[in-house]
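We now fix the convention by which a protein and its fold are recorded. Here is one such record, which you should read through line by line:

>
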Amino acid sequence: MTNHLNLIVDEIVNETHDTISILLHEKDNRDLSFLPGQFLTFIFDADGIETRRGYSIWTTPDDLPQVGVAIKKFKDGVTTKYLLESLKVGDSITSLPPLGNFTVETNQENERTLVMFGAGSGITPLMSHLQAILKYEPKSKVILFYGNHDEDSIIFYDKLNSLQKKYSDNFFIEHCLSKPKRNWNGVHGRIDSVKSIELLDKYKTHFTGQVEYYLCGPEEMMQTVMNILKERNVDRKNIHREIYTTKVLDETDEIEEKEREVTIILQGERHKVLVMPNETILEKALEQGLEIPNSCQFGNCSTCKAKLLSGKLKLVEQTALSEEDIKQGFCLTCVGYPASDNVVILYEDMF
């Protein structure tokens, strides 16, 4: 397709035992413009089946024409395993243009505080955010609470230390390790509710101007922090988060687990698909060979945005749609589970 990018690998760095960062450039000098916090969607052919995976950008627009992403190995992650074990300098990767709403825009006149909660590979988009803020907003502050297993699992450890030294008056880091090695002087334990309260209270004297919160990591951690911020009456519009995976509906969700027929209207034609329990509408549509527009597949980019014409849909962990979008009947089929019979979905270019 014409909007696909052809990225060439320039450099590969082993950040930890299970995470690499890579730098790439666009072979044909096509536009790679992005906002800090966006991601690239790599497209692979796995045994004849197209597979897409989103990887957050850790560099800033200043680094163009190069762009960097980080890739962490996950259990049963075939695509990431290939990238970690087989990728080499000079290889090409097909990608969609940068996407995503988990972004920051900078203004040198801003005087604000960005409080970031990250864990594991969740540091990746936060890295892009904080570098941009520190460089272009000299009156703003960044406070990062970053959780990991131990010292050796801290992604971008050297880069973060260098930034802290360079911007010592504006950048503060607390590394929180669940199983640190001996002689660790930092925070012990996961970022749970107790740790979140302690950290926020410890650094509240550094808060200046408007305070905004950026969260990226395991869903449990983000929900814990969300609950704490809600208790402190933080305005929801000042809380931003990135989600990497969708969760399977569990027994607490009031949805009858049964196969449901869903009608998809695409380019004026009606298609009926049978969606199994714990299967998204997008998954089934792609399995049936429908060319549904999609990219991230975890509710963050709105590429699969459609309109619900009838029936009920359960949306799980999406960040791309506003409350107004949802009120108007829009949905994301990559995180959409049919919750009733007679579900009809309409895809239109105008959306």
